[in-house]
Predict the 3D structure of the following.
Amino acid sequence: MSTSTATGHQPDVMPGRPACEPPTVDIVVPVHNEERVLHDSVTRLRGNLDRNLPFAWRITIVDNASTDGTWAAATTLAALHPEVEALHLDRKGRGLALRTAWSTSDAAIVAYMDVDLSTGLDALLPLVAPLVSGHSDVAVGSRLSSGAAVARGPRREAISRGYNLILRTVFGARFRDAQCGFKAVRADVARRLLPEIADDAWFFDTELLLLAEHNGLRIHEVPVDWIDDPDSRVHVGQTAIDDLRGVWRVACRFAAGRGRVDLGAARRAPLRDDMGRQLVTFAAVGAASTLVSLVVFLASRGRLGAVGANAVAVAGTALGNAWANRRFTLAARGRHDRLHHYAGAAAVLVAGLALSTLVLIGAGALGAGLLVEVVALTLSWGTAAVARFSLLRRWSVAARTAAP
């Protein structure tokens, strides 16, 4: 393959190297001042690919403004091996390296791994196979999935788990490990997502996954064997701060209704119906809301009376219930129909509050005790829940009908 240099984002291909057929998988290895390990790592990677990967492949070394002999080592490897290519960037940034290499690659699948080969290479075929088959759009190695085997210090383990918990809490993310240096993407999907990714450093990985999931792409996770590199150059503290800033930026972007990507033919057709999933999800959200509302009702009944406590309990969970049902039951994201959905939820809230208030007034007139009030409230809230689910189903059907 060709050896090339890059200034900023636009690599210039050096002439004189013979062209070959585009590979199925292009594995990018970003490096910065890795002269000492580059030759051995690429040699190990080439041997594993030769033995285990049944697709045509390429290794692309991307030198991020190294100041040692990394670029010379990369060009030597590219000159010796036709399946190795080298790019040079005059700026640092793992995200920049991946953006540059992936956007110019002619492969069907673009991937990357860290030069220290912390991830066991046996996971490479399981990583790319679902993308080659068309089953998935993005594939990630996961150190936090069941079946993963990980050797790293307690500080990094705690930071990693805490960070991924934040992603699940803020975004409802279903992937478990955002920052494992072992990922692959279908090239047609990557070309759609890359212009929407703002970060050029370590948060690039997280932003890629959040955008992919936000746009309904299928993410495949592969449990990996991982041994932490004791010579890692990553500044964990500063990287964690930068990642939290990125989380805030993306959360604000999604909340403002942005982040939707025109995926073209890469978008999967919507299901004809998923009532079973919707019903179970709605029941889970409703059970949580009911439990919280009952706790609030019992805590405030002594001071506010049954009717006042009911109003506080219903209003206190209304917004969270509406958001959770829109996000999880309806699987709706962005600003499309958001006002319409929340207005419908508010109408059901008012009707349900009126019904439960009448029930409590009737129970009070009959001299009923606390147990009867709780049972009556639960039944009236359940009636309102039936109306809410019927409304959600109407929106779901309307969304499927309008989908291309």
In short: Residues 1-9, 12-19 have pLDDT under 50 and may be disordered. The first strand starts at residue 4 and ends at 7. Residues 68 and 350 are 68 Å apart (CA to CA). The chain has eleven helices and eleven strands.
